[in-house]
Structure formats: structure tokens, C-alpha cells
Amino acid sequence: MEKPVNIAVIVPYAIYPAKMGGQKSVAFFYRYLADLIPVSIISTSNNVLPPVLNARFFPALGSSFSRYFNPFLIFKVGRIIKKYPFTHLIIVHPYLGWLGLILQWLYKLPLIVHSQNIESTRFKTTGKMWWPILQFYEKWVHKNAACNFFITEEDKQYAIHHFKLNPQQCFTITYGFENRNLPDAKWVQQCRKKIIEKYNLPENKRILLFNGTLSYEPNLKALDILTGNINKKLMQAGFEYTIIICGKNLPESYQGLAEYKDQNIIYAGFVDDINTYFMGADVFLNPVIEGGGIKTKLVEALGYGLQCISTESGAMGIPTEITGSRLIKIKDGDWDAFANAIMQPISNQPITDVFFNYFYWGHIAEQAAGILKNH
């Protein structure tokens, strides 16, 4: 039987303004969820709130790194919990799991861990020696929670198996997309024209897009693969193309990718109008082989109608049956096949309504609200 729900969400990092994929994942989800049930966000003091926010916001965590082990947060957050009739407590990521579990015990609120990826496996793939310690802690937090949200079906199954979780307490709450359908074809053509004029590109060149925060190690390694491997194969084949790379925090040692200016690569840096690039490009490239969770930019690229070529690891969480031929998955490390896929004719089969039903934030929020009302 459904019951009234009023949730408090502990978010251990700034999500406003929501610019990067991880920030969007949290900010958009709780914005849409707050249209359905009351939501209060307890987060850091360095958030810059939007003009309109449909949830209560409490900057109770401060902004220093000490928040991850500050025992005084028990009292600061506890005062907020005592003031409002919350029915559920959610923590985003397991890092403040110790706080969530103490508050669950003190105030008899069911705790939900909202995982954005399996953090221990993410650090394992990036070579961090201490990942087993994090895995032990992550397992402890998830096992003692009343309910667990995972961002991909793969993450959920991993956690059920490795953390020994009750499958009845585990749910897939994926990353979403705001639009319910493809953008208008005229607008797509206008965006393509803008890109061609901005970079003085020939009309017949295929525009390839790579996008991601370049201080994030998996993205930087993907960039190295793209510039040092895939691009060379495309040049050797005599293919007509331009790769546009968008993303901030490129290390200074890369010197703005200046050495690739005569190799069909343009480094655009951080762009405020990334949607223009998503709509104006022909193909989105995702040669990511490390990290975890869902690759948010891949979801966005598909939602804008782009042909997408991705490694199998990079396409986790995106079911092939809902993307059709718009998503081509390549075995990790097979860069010959990756380059060959880029040179093939672009599919004229549009992304289906099933994709938007699966990834639309409104539907995702409805699913989560239903789970909360029954737990």
C-alpha cells in the first residue's frame, strides 16, 4: 500500500550549477522527483542555486574535505531531520554512508543509497591500490541500507553478487534525458551550419564529436586513444572528417592539442553551448575503457539523434535493443574495428520512442517515486 513520502537527500558535493554529467545526474533526477513528492536536499555550501528550485535546500555540509569524516554532521543534519516530517533518508554515493547509517538508527528512517556507479570498481580500473578498502566500506554501507538505487543494470547485478545484497531491495534508476523526442530537423541543420562556419569546415566532411571533462582520468585516456590511435587509422585510410574535442581541464602538458591542428583535430575546450555540438555533429565517439557507471554524454548524444560509436565498457547501462543501429558497440581495445565503424555510412534509422520512454527524466522519477511509496 502506498504511503505519504517526504525525503531528505544528502549530496556530498556541489550539484548547482549542473554542468558535468555527475552533477546533472543528481540535480535533474531530484528536480523531477520533487515534482512528484516533497524533496529536501542537504548539501555543501559552495552550491550556486538556480533562480527557481522546487526542493528545500540546506547547505549543512560545509565545503571542506573534512565533511567526509566530520562527526558534528550527525548533529547538524539531525537538527534538520527533527524539524521536518521526513519518511526516507537518501545518500548520494556511499562516501557518507557512515552518517546515513547513524541517522537511520537515531531517527528510524529507512536509508536509501543512491549509487552513481560502483566506486570501488571505478578506482580499481584506474589503478588505485586501495580499492579493496573502499570495496569493503561500500559493501558495508549497501548491506545495511533499507534500499539501494543503482544507475545501471550491470551495477545492480554486480552489487547483488559481490556485496551479497537482497535483490528485492535493489533497483535500477538510470541517468536521464530531458527531451521526449528528437530535435527539429531545421534546428539540427542550423547547428551544423554554425559549426561549419565557426571552424571553416568543408560541407562534405564528416563531423566527429568527443566530449568529456579532461581532468577525469578515463576521459583523458580515451582522448589519448582517439588522438594517438584511432585518428591515425582514419588519416591512413584517407577518410574526409574532422574531430571536434570539447571539454575543460585539459592538462597543460597537452598544449591545447596544438600538434594535431593539421591532423583533422580541433580542440574547442569548454563550450557553453554543448547542445549545438550534439545537434550539429554527425557521429559521437566514446572510446572509454575505464571508469564505471553510465556515460552520461553517450545518453545525451543518442537523445539528440547522433550516430554513436562506443566501446562495450563505455556503453554500459544503455540497452542495445532500445538504440537500434544508432549505437554501435565495439569490443574494448579493437581500434581497427572502431575506426572502420566511423568510416561506414551513417544509419538513417532514427532513435525510437522506446529510448525516450526509458531515459526520460520524468519517467525515471515516476519509477523512483513508486518504489519509495512502497518501501
Oligomeric composition of the shown chains: single chain
Please state the average pLDDT score: 93
Please write the string of helix (H) and strand (E) elements. Answer: EHEEHEHEHHEHEHEHEEHEHEEHHH
Helix content: 25-40%
- Count of DSSP strands: 13
Strand order of the largest sheet: 3-2-1-4-5-6-7
Find the structural class using helix and strand composition: alpha/beta
Distance between the termini: 9 Å
Radius of gyration: 22 Å
Strand residue percentage: 15-25%
Helix count from the secondary structure assignment: 13
Q: What keyword list fits this structure?
A:
375 residues; alpha/beta; Rossmann fold; 7-stranded parallel β-sheet; 13 helices; 13 strands; 15% strand; globular
Provide an overview of this structure:
The structure is a single chain. The protein is an alpha/beta fold and 375 residues long. It folds into two domains: 7-176 and 360-373, Rossmann fold, CATH 3.40.50; 185-353, Rossmann fold, CATH 3.40.50. The protein contains 13 helices and 13 strands. It has helices at 21-33, 73-83, 97-107, 119-125, 131-143, 153-162, 185-199, 217-236, 274-280, 296-303, 335-343, 353-359, 361-373; strands spanning 7-10, 39-42, 56-58, 88-92, 111-114, 147-150, 170-172, 206-211, 241-246, 265-269, 283-286, 307-311, 327-330. A seven-stranded parallel β-sheet has the order 3-2-1-4-5-6-7, sandwiched between helices. It has a six-stranded parallel β-sheet with strand order 10-9-8-11-12-13, with helices on both faces. Strand 4 (88-92), helix 3 and strand 5 (111-114) form a beta-alpha-beta unit. Helix 2 (73-83) crosses helix 3 (97-107) and helix 4 packs antiparallel against helix 5. The longest helix is centred in the middle third of the chain and has 20 residues, at 217-236. The protein is globular, with a radius of gyration of 22 Å.
